[in-house]
Design brief:
- The chain is 35% helix and 17% strand.
- It is of the alpha+beta class.
- The termini are far apart.
Amino acid sequence: MSFGQGGPQWGPGGTGGPGGGPTPDWAALAEASEARTRRRKWLMIGGGAFATVGIAAAVAITVVSANGDGDTTSNKPASELPTAADIPGASKDAEPSFDATTPPPPPDPKDFIASAKKDKAPLTPEGLFPGKSLRSGEHIYKKGATDSTSRCTSVTQSALGSVLAKHDCTRLIRASYIRNGIAVTVGVAVFDTKPDADKVKDEVKKGLVDALPGKGVPAFCRTGVCRGTYNAHGRYAYFTTTGYTSGKNVTTTDRKAYGVGDDLARFAFQRIQQRGEAQASAAAEAPQ
């Protein structure tokens, strides 16, 4: 389709148009539309800013309320806060003090066997060497005769007896044990103080406690060579005399005889130590 020269025409500012009405002012309409658009944007931006301020205020109110928890002093400066004396329940009096108490140390068993002044438990052959036998590891020794005397030199060879007398031995208790043809007599000499017993141990060079036969232990160490040991614990010196009931000599390489003598010497030490432990335990349990 084409328009000819005789077709309708539109011109600026013309009054003609379809229906013969006035021609619109397009420039004015465009400017008004642009102004309305700018106004809506500012309103939207302004509204958003207002909403942001409102949220921030709500958060601030919430934080203050949470921190205060109803306490009107929470936002006050430090100079306006109550002092410790104004707080209910605060005491102006000094807190009570207590002296530090330390329980006394337990009694030392060695203290009880170091001196006759403290070592007061009964002292008898049966108390020192109880029962009918003793076990040392896998070895069991049968107990034979026992005895006790205040004449220490009467049951020892002279070399040992002279040292016992020098340091005032008050009693000598003996017990014999036997196993597989080897017999041992254990002698425990009693002194008033630990230094006396220590001097005996240091000064004895030779001499034995006399072997004690009886109650299943035949005579031994009447002839031949026997082995002797010397030691001390607390106010007690203790000795062993070991030999074969057959009269066979004990040599320095005789492990069996040496083992038996060492077992009985260890047993004597343990019995003296247990004596101290029993008295220390009784003292600890006694009412103060």
